[in-house]
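input
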Amino acid sequence: MAYLGRGLDRGNYLKLDDISSQFDGNATTFNLTSGGNPFYPGSSYSLIVSLAGVIQEPESAFAVSNNQIIFAGPPAVNDDFFCIVLGVPLAAGTLPLGVINTSNFQQQSVTPEILSPDARGVGIQSGGVSIAGAGVTQLNFVGTGNTFLYHTSTKTIDISIQGGGVGAGGTWGTNSVGIHTTKLVGVNTTTVVGAADSEGALQVNGNVAIIEGALLTHKNIEGQIIVPTDKNALLIGPVSVGTAATIDVALGSVLVIV
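output
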């Protein structure tokens, strides 16, 4: 014979934890738990509550608020208790507030792309090439002078890092920074920076190398050489001075060719 009457509810049928040990004859509000974890009923009508062997009427004998049950009167100290959660039919994609928590999901079963197309974490690029992204939650830039430029059209950020020990253009921000390397180091500039009249400044405008204690210089002078006041200069000869080249030695200074 076919089933007659209201359709059976569907869902997860549970027996909640016994809370009768908390009855003291005065309290009316108690936390509902399942397996020791807070339980949030959809409504009082989804519960069958027995108190002292008597089924309680929803919204009259008790009500629910979040994960708490509130009795109209305080249960007695020796009252027994049980609560059965009925499955509640829900429209697809519709869930009551407060019934879903992290314990309902299998680990890694929900990805950021499912939650929101824009919640995919941070992708890091170097020169337009992706170098990181998965699992990145925070970027920490150490130092001062860092600048950031956001492009709304591409949703990208250009980052310029300055400060710390090294400044922009490969210069050093402090006098305590030095270089030590077991590799070859080359220095090349197209123009002399500043006055270049301090013995503490090393500038190279041309070809100079020190190899195994030997100083190697270019033998052809095609530009301008200026020896400032109160300075000594050294040329390793013989040298060839081009027609457009000039050598200026200030009064009191000396240029020696060896």
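quick obs: The chain has two domains: 1-104, 179-258.
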